[in-house]
């Protein structure tokens, strides 16, 4: 009797802590608990508490916004002060078509210029050397300074920031600078970014933008950084790109790691050329994909900011706080969009955009819902802009800085993503840095494996995709938007105009400018980007500049691994 | 030849200007894993280069991946294949093809268009079927 009484008292004495009580009830209620792992491979618990956030209870568990290590944001005011730049990628048809679309988007609230050239431009060709069917279907057909002037008619490039999708050798920036010169705009007032100037990501994952051999592309980039520093000081010449790699299959942690490793490679290359870190690092920007993995993306950005702040100081020797700020543009992920029930993509884009906003981005492109059907329609692009307007001005997302900071889950995940990212960066470092790691195919193999894993998760139904492997409905395909193509007559007129312009320009000047390019390419101390600007001024076309550099610096064939 | 040792020969490639190759790489790997002989090329092949490769490698099926409007020149490829006497080779397209532009592809002889959301299993099964068809056609005509 006594004995049983004492044992029941003992049982009462080991009263469960609230946590253990929750855990016990959770286990009993949930039945079979399916293990959850995020895309980056981090196991996700059902609940996070103080014990999961290692710095919880420290005097200063988190820095303040605008203070190192910038986990909570790179500026003191963040979106409460100035919201992100609304930068919609656009480009289509002829320069006149582009100009009309640009001005209509600006009327709708877009606050910066973004220019996407035609795929023929990306590949380094002029319009008169490719299949006419492909001209202007995905971007503006822009081959010379005149075309740039027409594209930006009515837009003051001394006042509004321009993002040019302008991979090496940066002919679009050369055209922009000469167009500005003709208008009397001071180069020092020009702001914007050479979007996607990062040749490494093109070599690995966005082959469309890849034109020159690896060593040639490296040289042109460094010359371009040095030239902008001297003559266009408010221009961001370096945009390090994680977006391509994530779109090509990298997990969020891999994409962040490869991007940071690329930034280190480029910074160390600049330092090796004798540049001071604080001279170029403030003009480094980053460009990322924002997938539907909401919390994982937020943690990715917070962790990336923290790592970059440390690397710039400890490894690269930066002293200026501006060198340590991780400025980034985010684009919602097109890979997550579906062809099935395409209007559902508006919801997907909204969630992706929110992840970017809570992740602390500086500028944002929201995809149009019809991206998985075709290059976006004007209607789709307008909804994408409206989505940003709603998020920015209707939903009170920007009232508080880093609103998820201090969440046990978000902080624990930020720490774990940081650890994961650092472990991948270590693999790259051990391979001799990013340049060597892509030259040998190491990074490509990692991307390919991750892409395969993701597709298997979708095919097996482990990852639900509404309308694709779940909740399918019979759809009337005729309800899909009809794709818009450039008007063949105006494209023909554009081609004719280009041919006439070519006949009229001075052949002597053209030859001289091409020789100047070759001579500069042969002289390692010359600035090749300067010669490209000279070429633009002498009426060289985009294709002519690219062709000459392909000859002198070697043509780039990306390394593809299946 | 028995069905057992029939190994479809498939060329996975991209023509035109677009370089988005995540899809073509994944499909090539899936075909290989399904036991096919796969010839894979990087993006930006010219139409004559694809025809030449199809001849040299004696492929049964050509898979063209197109994410950024390159499908508009697929009819030119079909004509070039016919001209080279490769009528038996079956051509499929995968990627982004707007609905209103599908008819011109089918009219030019494209067998199937795999849109986003198609499973790898579906793709490899169909490619196998087309490969058997192509072999049968070859046996009949003695090509």
Automatic annotation (TrEMBL), chain A:
Domain Methylmalonyl-CoA mutase alpha/beta chain catalytic: 38-554
SUPFAM superfamilies in UniProt: Cobalamin (vitamin B12)-dependent enzymes
InterPro entries noted in UniProt: Cbl-dep_enz_cat, MeMalonylCoA_mutase_a/b_cat, MMCoA_mutase_a_cat
GO MF term list: cobalamin binding; methylmalonyl-CoA mutase activity
UniProt keyword terms in alphabetical order: Isomerase
Keyword Isomerase: yes
Keyword Plastid attributed: no
Source organism superkingdom: Bacteria
Pfam families for the chain: MM_CoA_mutase
Classification via NCBIfam families: acid_CoA_mut_N
Name of protein: Methylmalonyl-CoA mutase
Species of the source: Borborobacter arsenicus
TrEMBL record, chain B:
InterPro entries, A to Z: Acid_CoA_mut_C, Cobalamin-bd, Cobalamin-bd_sf
Residue ranges occupied by any B12-binding domain in the UniProt entry: 7-138
Signal sequence bounds: none
PROSITE patterns: B12_BINDING
Gene3D superfamilies: Cobalamin-binding domain
Necessary cofactors: adenosylcob(III)alamin
Record's keyword terms, sorted: Cobalamin, Cobalt, Isomerase, Metal-binding
Domain of life where this protein originates: Bacteria
Protein name from the UniProt record: Methylmalonyl-CoA mutase
Protein species of origin: Borborobacter arsenicus
Lineage: Bacteria, Pseudomonadati, Pseudomonadota, Alphaproteobacteria, Hyphomicrobiales
């Amino acid at each position: 009797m006594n004995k049983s009484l004492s044992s029941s008292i003992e049982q009462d004495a080991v009263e469960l802590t609230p946590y253990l009580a929750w855990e016990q009830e959770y286990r009993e209620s949930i039945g079979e608990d399916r293990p959850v792992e995020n895309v980056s491979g981090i196991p996700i618990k059902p609940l996070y508490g103080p014990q999961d956030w290692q710095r919880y209870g420290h005097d200063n568990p988190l820095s303040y916004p605008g203070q190192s290590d910038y986990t909570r944001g790179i500026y003191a005011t963040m979106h409460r002060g100035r919201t992100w730049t609304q930068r919609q990628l656009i480009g289509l048809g002829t320069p006149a078509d582009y100009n009309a679309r640009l001005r209509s988007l600006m009327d709708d609230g877009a606050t910066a210029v973004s220019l996407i050239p035609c795929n023929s431009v990306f590949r380094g060709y002029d319009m008169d050397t490719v299949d006419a069917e492909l001209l202007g279907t995905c971007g503006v057909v822009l081959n010379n300074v005149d075309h740039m002037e027409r594209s930006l008619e009515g837009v003051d490039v001394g006042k509004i920031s321009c993002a040019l999708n302008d991979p090496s050798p940066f002919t679009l920036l050369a055209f922009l600078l000469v167009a500005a010169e003709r208008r009397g705009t001071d180069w020092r007032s020009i702001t914007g970014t050479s979007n996607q100037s990062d040749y490494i990501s093109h070599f690995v994952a966005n082959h469309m933008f890849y034109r020159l051999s690896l060593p040639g592309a490296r040289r042109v980039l460094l010359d371009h950084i040095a030239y902008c520093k001297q003559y266009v000081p408010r221009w961001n010449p370096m945009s390090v790109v994680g977006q391509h790699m994530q779109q090509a299959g990298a997990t969020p942690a891999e994409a962040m790691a490869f991007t940071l490793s690329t930034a280190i490679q480029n910074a160390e290359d600049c330092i090796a050329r004798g540049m001071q870190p604080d001279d170029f690092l403030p003009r480094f920007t980053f460009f990322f994909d924002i997938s539907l993995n909401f919390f994982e993306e937020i943690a990715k950005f917070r962790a990336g900011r923290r790592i970059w702040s440390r690397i710039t100081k400890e490894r690269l020797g930066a002293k200026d706080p501006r060198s340590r700020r991780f400025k980034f543009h985010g684009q919602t992920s097109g890979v997550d969009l579906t062809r099935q029930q395409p209007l559902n993509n508006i919801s997907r884009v909204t969630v992706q955009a929110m992840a970017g906003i809570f992740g602390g981005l500086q500028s944002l492109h929201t995809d149009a819902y019809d991206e998985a059907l075709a290059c976006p329609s004007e209607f789709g692009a307008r909804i994408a802009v409206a989505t940003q307007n709603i998020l920015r001005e209707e939903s009170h997302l920007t009232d508080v800085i880093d609103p998820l900071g201090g969440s046990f889950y978000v902080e624990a995940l930020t720490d774990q993503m940081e650890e994961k990212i650092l472990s991948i960066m270590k693999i790259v470092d051990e391979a001799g840095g990013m340049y060597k790691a892509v030259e040998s195919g190491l990074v490509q193999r990692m991307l390919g494996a991750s892409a395969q894993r993701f597709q298997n998760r979708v095919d097996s139904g482990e990852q639900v995709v509404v309308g694709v492997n779940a909740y399918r409905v019979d759809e009337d395909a005729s309800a899909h938007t009809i794709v818009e193509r450039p008007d063949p007559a105006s494209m023909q007129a554009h081609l004719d105009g280009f041919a006439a312009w070519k006949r009229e320009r001075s052949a002597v000047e053209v030859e001289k400018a091409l020789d100047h390019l070759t001579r500069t390419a042969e002289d390692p101390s010359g600035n090749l980007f300067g010669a490209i600007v000279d070429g633009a001024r002498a009426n060289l076309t985009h294709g002519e500049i690219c062709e000459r550099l392909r000859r002198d610096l070697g043509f780039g064939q990306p390394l593809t691994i299946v | 030849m028995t069905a057992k040792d029939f190994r479809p020969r498939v060329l996975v490639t991209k023509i035109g200007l677009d370089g988005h190759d995540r899809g073509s790489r994944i499909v090539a790997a899936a075909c290989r894993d399904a036991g096919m002989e796969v010839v894979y090329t990087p993006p930006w092949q010219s139409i004559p280069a694809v025809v030449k490769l199809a001849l040299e490698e004696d492929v049964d099926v050509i898979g063209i991946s197109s994410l950024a409007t390159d499908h508009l020149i697929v009819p030119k490829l079909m004509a070039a294949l016919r001209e080279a006497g490769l009528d038996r080779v079956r051509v499929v397209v995968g990627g982004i093809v707007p609905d209103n532009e599908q008819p011109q592809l089918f009219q030019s002889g494209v067998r199937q268009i795999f849109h986003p959301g198609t499973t790898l299993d579906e793709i490899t099964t169909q490619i196998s079927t087309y490969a058997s068809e192509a072999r049968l056609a070859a046996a009949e005509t003695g090509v």
